[in-house]
Design goal:
The complex is a heterodimer of chains A (248) and B (891). Chain A is of the alpha/beta class. Chain A contains five helices and 15 strands. By secondary structure, chain B is an alpha/beta fold. Among the domains of chain B are: 247 residues, Rossmann fold; 91 residues; 230 residues, no CATH class. The longest helix of chain B is centred in the N-terminal third of the chain and has 26 residues. The chains are: A alpha/beta (248), B alpha/beta (891). Chains A and B meet through helix 1 of A and strand 23 and helix 32 of B.
């Protein structure tokens, strides 16, 4: 689905492609998640990395993009780099290298210590936010600061947006979605999490004041459009307030 | 060989096998041997495996123990009694363990005193020691445990869970070498569930560890089939069941039981008068008997009955409640008071069914249906404590379906037609647990371990392939090599064909997390606006489907979805409840009893049909005599007059209104409209019990939904199920539906259907915890149930991605299809429908037929909603009466 001339939401995938900068963008992979959980006694089989790579393979094939921008939270643990995390991070970086895609990391709140790998792996790492070709990428746990007249769009992650749909007998289905709206006159796009386990926050069910990102206190969430992904396609479900009205 | 014994030994023969001192003690204290003792003393002394079923008060415990005590004193007198465990006694209840301990300590002391008297100082010279007994459960203190390690008791009294821990306590397990006897009590409480499966494996491991083939003694109340229970007890050896003698003394107690209907018209008795009559009836029975025990099926029912009896008839402390939600102390107090005979009446949900010693009860009342013949007999068996006394009891019915169910049930009880139980087979989660337990003790050759496991009856058909799959799973084969350090519980070497323990923490994890009883807590209920409303039991939530309406605190709510330990609902003011709050407490109707009821419907329906052709129903309402044939038929059944009149009325109305009575061979499918709500219903009168209907209803709803491209709501109960469908449905649609579904693979359909349900999510947690995939306790920290639930959902989605046949997932489906539901029988019914062995009939009715009323008002069946149910029922009933000619509904 084409969001505008330059930005495409790849069908059925939590990935966008920006033509002018030849880049794919994803958010919130949370690599190493299972390993960290396993150390807490929760033996979740490892599927996340493979899942992400499968998605990216499809996206790279479809777009031939040369750059992959990870819009925050490439890893899961806050305080250190866990050994399990390191292994997956290493595999992920190699995966990108094999496909001849250069990696750009925007640091998220889970990404402390990630600088350690900057030199070894020749990574491009941005702290708070990055303006790349007029697109302002920031993770979302803080407000963006670098907006200017030339800013074409704000792109963030962090929130893991999703919507819940109920059918007639009340069965619930949750779909990950993009949120697309306006912030201070600029377009803003919130990316769904690419992490396999983060099924997301029901934006149409959770009260607005419980959303994580501070930016949602400063923009009308109800007016944002929910563009859901699932079953191999990407469909515009209308605005959040319409959805709330329809679903109750 | 498993054989049932018919002829007891004489008292002389039986007593002759006992040591002189023990015999002397027995003769001094008892006048005669009870029926089970006449078999057991001799057989156990010959080291035969035996299964004894007998009612409470028949000297069951002594029959199991006396020969063993005799042998131990015999050894002691010869100076051969060693410091080790000779006999392990296992019961599912800690309370029962404490009872047994008390009940054995006294006889042992008395016997010892006789020996002391006879021997004098030789006692010291010959070092003649007293037989020792000790209890080992989760309650046993550290100090006692240490003492038991230093001086192991000759008789160890324990629970299945504590036994499993002992098997992995290297030092203590040394004391099991040369073990001679194992007694399993309350076998009927273990044989049909995973606790029992777990125990069966423990026993085989115990056999391996002790290096001896110990004598197995099973004690239990009535259960059927006995061969199945015997196999469970003794296990297999070389692919064949080990020898076992069955002693069925469960019928030694005569039954004097009947069904009572408090009024002759269960629909139109004036407001409150059914209730009044019910309590009057209960009060009369209490007054007439020395002591009465009342079973109510649900905890809320128990509280209500106690409250009403006290309020209405000025009872005081002489009436008490006993149920699972009360504190251990207050339950113990009630048990003590009962034993002392100082209670006039005790009211229990189900908790007093088990063999806890409660002394002599004269009369048992059951309010509503106990749902199985076996259970009814067990409960009635609580009456008349001595083995010669008659068990006296009444079942008071509360509605017309109850009336039919209980009448058939009691009739079956008197004819000794029991319903059957089955042992869960090849449960992979319990097996996984024991494999870890085994690996902790030593390195195992795969074939050797496989042979030990297959000796347990629940695994006698275990496939090597499944076993290997499980070994791979436990060895962490589903994650990369570098992660196995964390994931693996065992190592498994394919080449060496062996496995063993792995990981520093595995033993701690095993000790803290083993066992089969899932952690459960209350689920908090919120509205979408995050307003807290109350709480429901987790088990109840597993029964909820999105869209189900239930009552909580007197209000109606519609279930939406859940997150962790939170359930979200919306208010549902104008809807009819679809599921009663006690649904999860109520046991499902047994299949055998369901079929008996179907047969009764067929037979009695014919008789009523013949008689109403000649006569109108009118006289019945005026309490005149029943038609001759009807009276004659019902006269053979254990029912009072009111019950007979109500029964006739019920069938007559159904026949006059719908011209047809559904039976065990004919499913009636009724398309009708609920006049209250204007909603169309498709009612399946498939009286096969809830477990089968649960499976059938989901399959039918899916098939119908696909055919008409609509969402179909479901209500399920024992007598059938109701599908909500917006459109009118004709007989052509039904024919297509039946032909669709009889050709479909409903196992596969249901897998798809339950994948996203609460049932699946919650059961997955239980199974994942049993398989050590999520831990209840990790490195000493208790993990909350909510956390466990969230974690298990993550694991489920990951495991499914790796392999939809992941052992843990497979086990969840097995548990749901075979233990929660009864898929095999549901499939059989569909097969019979296809072959014509089972038929169906479709009718359209302007309002629901009488046999459907219970199903439609089922959700109302709660305390708070009783009035509404009555109102609703009466309205439905009036519509029926309007249709039946010659009936004046206004009367």
């Amino acid at each position: 689905m084409q969001l505008n001339d330059d930005v495409e939401l790849l069908d059925g995938l939590p990935v966008i492609f920006i033509k002018s900068i030849d880049s794919l963008v994803i958010a919130d992979p949370h690599l190493g998640y299972e390993g960290v959980m396993a150390k807490k006694g929760v033996l979740i089989p490892k599927v996340n990395l493979k899942h992400i790579c499968t998605i990216l393979d499809r996206a790279i094939k479809a777009t031939k993009a040369k750059t992959l921008i990870v819009d925050g939270d490439i890893k899961n643990e806050f305080s250190t780099v866990d050994e399990e995390e390191f292994n997956e991070l290493y595999d992920f970086i190699n995966f990108a290298k094999e496909r001849q895609v250069s990696l750009v990391l925007i640091k998220g709140n889970h990404d402390n210590f990630v600088e350690r790998y900057r030199d070894a792996f020749k990574l491009q790492i941005y702290g708070q936010e990055a303006d790349i070709g007029g697109y302002l990428f920031f993770h979302g746990e803080e407000l963006p600061i670098g907006m200017n007249d030339g800013t074409k769009m704000l792109v963030m992650g962090h929130e893991h947006p999703a919507i819940s749909i109920f059918n007639e007998v009340g069965k619930r289905e949750k779909l990950r979605c993009f949120l697309y709206g306006k912030f201070k006159g600029k377009d803003i796009l919130v990316l769904p999490a690419i992490n396999y386990f983060a099924s997301g926050t029901d934006i149409n069910a959770v009260p607005e004041d419980e959303l994580l990102a501070p930016i949602f206190e400063r923009l009308p969430v109800g007016e944002m459009r929910a563009i859901a992904i699932g079953y191999g396609s990407t469909i515009d479900f209308g605005t959040i307030s319409e959805l709330k009205r329809a679903i109750g | 060989m498993i054989e049932q014994l018919q002829r007891p030994f004489s008292d002389e023969e039986s007593l002759a096998v006992l040591d002189g001192n023990v015999r002397g003690w027995f003769v001094e204290n008892f006048k005669e041997l009870t029926p089970p003792q006449r078999y057991a003393f001799k057989l156990i002394s010959e080291r035969k495996n035996i299964l004894i079923t007998a009612p409470t008060g028949s000297g069951k415990t002594m029959s199991g123990f006396l020969s063993i005590i005799s042998r131990l004193f015999d050894l002691s007198l010869k100076g051969e009694l060693e410091n080790r465990v000779y006999c392990i006694y296992i019961s599912p209840l800690r309370a029962l363990n404490n009872d047994i301990y008390k009940n054995l300590t006294v006889p042992i002391e008395q016997i010892y005193q006789r020996i002391v008297k006879a021997k004098g100082v030789d006692i010291i010279k010959d070092n003649i020691r007293k037989v020792t007994i000790a209890v080992r459960t989760g309650d046993t203190s550290q100090k006692e445990r240490r003492a038991q390690l230093l001086r192991p008791p000759h008789i160890l009294v324990t629970t299945p869970e504590s036994l499993a821990i002992l098997l992995n306590s290297e030092k203590f397990a040394m004391n099991f070498k040369g073990l001679e006897y194992v007694i399993i009590d309350e076998l009927h409480e273990l044989a049909n569930n995973k606790r029992g499966v777990h125990l069966a494996l423990s026993l085989e491991r115990l056999g391996d560890l002790s290096g001896s083939s110990f004598t197995r003694i099973g004690l239990g109340a009535t259960l059927y089939p006995l061969e199945e229970a015997a196999k469970f007890l003794v296990g297999y050896d070389n692919g064949k069941p080990r020898d076992c003698m069955i002693i069925d003394a469960s019928w030694s107690k005569p039954l004097d039981i009947r069904v009572i209907s408090p009024v002759s018209d269960l629909i139109y008795a004036a407001e409150g008068s059914t209730e009044d009559a019910t309590y009057e009836e209960i009060n009369r029975i209490i007054k007439e008997s020395k002591s009465t025990l009342i079973f109510t099926n649900t905890r809320s029912g128990t509280e209500r009955v106690v409250y009403n009896l006290k309020k209405r008839f000025k009872y005081g402390e002489d009436i008490a409640a006993h149920h699972g939600s009360l504190s251990k102390e207050s339950r113990l107090e009630v048990e003590e008071l009962l034993k002392k005979g100082s209670l006039k009446c005790a009211v229990s949900s189900t908790s007093l069914e088990l063999g806890i010693d409660i002394g002599a009860i004269e009369n048992v009342i059951q309010l509503g249906s106990p749902k199985s013949v076996t259970r009814a007999i067990q409960r009635f068996g609580r009456a008349g404590h001595s083995f010669k006394a008659t068990a006296k009891g009444e079942t008071i019915v509360l509605n017309r379906d109850d009336l039919v169910e209980c009448s058939v049930m009691l009739d079956a009880a008197l004819k000794r037609h029991l319903d059957s139980f089955s042992v869960p087979q090849n449960a992979l989660d319990v097996l996984a647990q024991h494999i870890v337990g085994m690996s902790l003790t030593r390195k195992w050759d795969v074939d050797e371990a496989f042979a030990v496991l297959r000796q347990a009856y629940p695994y006698h058909e275990l496939e090597m392939e499944d076993f290997i799959y499980l070994l791979n799973y436990l060895a962490g084969a589903y994650v990369g090599l570098e992660s196995r350090r964390v994931y693996a519980k065992i190592w498994y070497d394919e080449k060496e064909h062996a496995f063993g323990k792995r990981g520093r923490f595995t033993k701690v994890i095993y000790m803290l997390n083993q066992g089969t009883i899932p952690d459960e807590v209350a689920v908090n209920v919120f509205t979408a606006q995050n307003k807290w409303i109350g709480s429901i039991e987790e088990e109840f939530m597993t029964k909820l489907k999105p869209g189900d309406v239930f009552t909580l605190g007197g209000h109606l709510y519609r279930f939406e979805h859940s997150r962790g330990m939170k359930a979200f609902v919306t208010e549902a003011k104008d809807s009819a409840p679809t599921i009663p709050p006690w649904f999860s407490e109520q046991l499902p109707l047994s299949y055998e009893l369901a079929i008996e009821i179907g047969k009764f419907r067929e037979e009695f329906g014919k008789i009523v049909g013949d008689s109403i052709k000649r006569k109108q129903v009118r006289p019945i309402r005026r309490k005149e005599a029943l038609p001759d044939k009807v009276g004659e038929f019902l006269g053979r059944m254990p029912m009072d007059e009111n019950a007979k009149l109500a029964m006739f009325g019920y069938f007559a109305e159904q026949l006059l209104f719908a011209k047809v009575v559904p039976t065990h061979k004919c499913i009636l499918i009724e398309s009708t409209e609920n006049t209250d709500t204007g909603k169309r219903h498709l009612i399946f009168h498939s009286l096969f019990g809830r477990r089968i209907n649960d499976a059938l209803s989901r399959a039918f709803a899916m098939a119908l939904g696909e055919m008409l491209d609509i969402d179909v709501g479901i209500m399920v109960n024992d007598n059938g199920f109701v599908l909500s469908a917006e459109e009118g449905i004709d007989s052509g649609t039904i024919d297509d539906l039946i032909s669709d579904i009889t050709r479909a693979n409903i196992g596969r359909m249901l897998k798809k259907n339950i994948r996203k349900t609460e049932l699946m999510r919650r059961r997955f947690r239980h199974v994942a915890a049993r398989s050590f995939m999520i831990l209840k306790n990790y490195k000493g920290y208790k993990i909350t149930v909510g956390r466990q639930q969230v974690n298990s959902q993550l694991i489920l989605s990951a495991a499914e991605k790796i392999d939809p046949n992941f052992p843990v997932i497979r086990e969840v489906y097995r548990e749901i299809f075979n233990d929660v539901m009864d898929l095999p029988r549901a499939e059989q019914i569909l097969k019979d429908l296809k072959s014509g062995e089972m038929t169906y009939r479709f009718i359209e009715t302007p309002s629901p037929s009488p046999f459907a009323h219970g199903m439609l008002t089922f959700g109302h069946a709660d305390v708070a909603m009783m009035k509404e149910r009555r109102k609703h029922l009466q309205e439905l009933h009036k519509l029926v009466m309007k249709r039946i000619k010659g009936w004046d509904a206004a009367q």
